[in-house]
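Summary for the lay section of the report: proteins are chains of building blocks that fold into shapes. Here we show the chain for Restriction endonuclease type IV Mrr domain-containing protein and then a coded description of the shape we predicted for it.
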Amino acid sequence: MAESVPVRCPTCRRENAFTPPTFPCACGAPLTLPVLRGGVPVEILHRTWQASWVEVRCEVCGRQDEWPAPESGCACGTVVRVPVAPAPTPPPPNFPSPGRPARQPAPVSPAPHGIPYGTPRPAFRPVTIRTARDCVTAAEQYLKWLGYADVARTQERTASGVDLRGTGLVAQVDPTTHATALREIECVWLNGLNDSALAVFFSLAGYARDARSRADELRLPLFVMDLTGTPQPVNDPADELIKYGAAGR
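The coded shape description reads as follows.
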């Protein structure tokens, strides 16, 4: 697992631990984004497609590709883009010795879903976000990783905005570039209340201050998502959900 680095929030000055995401390179090797230690994070006020990607070179094969720029969410609701170190000069080709085949990296196995309570979870495998549909897919996979094995997207998004349902669970995903509003938090909470289920919210751009406060009062777990598809908890109920998973509810 990649080593976490401290990231200081420019809004509340809180220092958060951030683990750089790891992606599979085309050569099969795991590629961890080289977060710049001591770099100054930049608050994301307006998203652009160009600024949401960074070029990183694979240290194994030398291939340089674009990857989702790493982002970190703070408990205060601020979402920042974490700076990445410049791509290093590519190493010279490493040709195998005559008669000896080049060693291939071992494939990375996908993480199983529905992990029972008390069993250590494997690392979450994120889903890269490029479209609004990808946001829902990423949230669905994350909830399965937390133990909600039967969670699935609704056939058609309801007027109240529920995107995902599972046993004892309803969830909404906001893929827009605007902070999630208070009304959306209250709507998904009411859906959970009507179904006697836990309500969870995922947002790409963070939450309005009153929405965040209301979620805390209702004990509704809030997550922010970055373009790597890795949800980050932004309140205590979300931390508890990660700690105990579905079996602890």
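Put simply, here is one thing we learned. Confidence is low (pLDDT under 50) at residues 93-118.
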